[in-house]
Amino acid sequence: MSDINTIILEVRAGAGGDEASIFAGDLVHMYQKYAQSRGWRFSELDSSRSSLDGFKTFIGRIDGQGAYEALKQESGVHRVQRIPKTEKSGRVHTSTASVAILPQIEPREVDINPSDLEISFFRSSGPGGQNVNKVETAVRILHKPTGVVVASQNERSQTANKENAMSVLRSKLYEAMQQQQAASLGALRKEQIGTMDRSEKIRTWNFPQDRVTDHRIGKKWHNIEKILAGDLDPVVKAFKKESDQG
């Protein structure tokens, strides 16, 4: 899959309430700025925002040469340790957010029966949930056999949103299919480094010590703010070096 240049990015707030949503937002902005630094296209497909400029969920697309190869190791649970903006007593909290990097799958690679889909339309909403469109252009698709639900609301037309939602659905079904095949062989599906299991804590962002630790390859980096500002190259290069040596 090293030649895949279009990926679906999914970030979800985990344990930690508002702080988890803020951290999820930090990760989304980091990937957006990194994509911009590489000259890639970054677009939002669907999101659910929190009240504190964060994301409960975010689904987007990144288009660019080598995008999957560069970012595949980001999949998993990211843990943050810091004093939240909402914390008045100065205590360090631990929160989590999960990241999934899914290759965008061509229609011919996943066979989806139209009768298995339940498609509904609704008005797109902005921060706080208010409707920002008088026309029902947003699309939600339920894949009945698996229960997978996807949505897209950032395009101006129903057709474009439906295409985006179908793209996300294909990627999710492809991932599930790959995991099922791997499980049937008696092993978890593995990439070159680590696994794609989102329940696995892959990285800790420790603000008091200004240190990022990746638990899979045992590497540490300092200057968290710089990394969150989009300087992800040191992490990407460390994984590439590990992969080349492996």
Task: Output the strand order for the largest sheet.
Answer: 2-3-1-5-4-9-10-11
Domain module tally: 2
Indicate the mean pLDDT.
84
Q: Any idea what the CATH architecture of the largest domain is?
A: 2-Layer Sandwich
Shape: globular
Please state the CA-atom Rg, rounded to the nearest Å.
18 Å
Following the backbone from N to C, one meets helices and strands in this order, namely: EHEEHEEEEEHEEEHH
Total beta-strand segments: 11
Distance between the termini: 17 Å
InterPro entries: PCRF, Pep_chain_release_fac_I, Pep_chain_release_fac_I_sf, Prokaryotic/Mito_RF
Pfam family, one: RF-1
GO molecular function, one term: translation release factor activity
Function: Peptide chain release factor 1 directs the termination of translation in response to the peptide chain termination codons UAG and UAA.
